[in-house]
């Protein structure tokens, strides 16, 4: 089942290549959406795709980047967009 989530990611996630890594992982799991740094030190993102793929994506971004340290991911389900074709890094 396709879902979309808004994410706030806390931890050492800026200045360590985390957005690019997140984009790569989204591609691995056939997800669409976006990711960007927030001025408060968090990274925010929206991700859309199959629930099981999203779960694997979240686990990957928590544990597979040796330069980042994800302390917590806050997620909130939001409406699907269906129009997106890729996962982008927004500056």
UniProtKB/TrEMBL annotation:
According to the entry, every stretch annotated as the Acylphosphatase-like domain falls at: 4-91
Query: What is the originating organism of this protein?
Result: Alkalicoccobacillus gibsonii
Any one Pfam family here would be Acylphosphatase
- Return the InterPro entries for the record: Acylphosphatase, Acylphosphatase-like_dom, Acylphosphatase-like_dom_sf, Acylphosphatase_CS
Upper classification of the source organism reads: Bacteria, Bacillati, Bacillota, Bacilli, Bacillales
According to its UniProt record, which reaction does this protein catalyse? an acyl phosphate + H2O = a carboxylate + phosphate + H(+)
Q: Which residues form the active site?
A: 19, 37
Q: Does the keyword Zinc apply?
A: no
Record keywords, A-Z: Hydrolase
Q: Which family does it belong to?
A: Belongs to the acylphosphatase family.
Q: What is its EC number?
A: 3.6.1.7
Q: What GO terms are given for molecular function? A: acylphosphatase activity
**What protein name does the entry list?**
Acylphosphatase
């Amino acid at each position: 089942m396709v879902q979309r989530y808004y994410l706030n990611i806390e931890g050492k996630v800026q200045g360590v290549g985390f957005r690019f890594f997140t984009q790569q992982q989204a591609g691995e799991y056939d997800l669409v959406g976006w990711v960007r740094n927030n001025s408060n030190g968090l990274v925010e993102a929206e991700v859309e795709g199959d629930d099981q793929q999203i779960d694997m994506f979240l686990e990957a971004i928590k544990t597979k980047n040796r330069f980042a340290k994800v302390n917590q991911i806050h997620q909130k389900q939001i409406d699907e967009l269906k129009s997106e074709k890729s996962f982008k890094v927004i500056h």
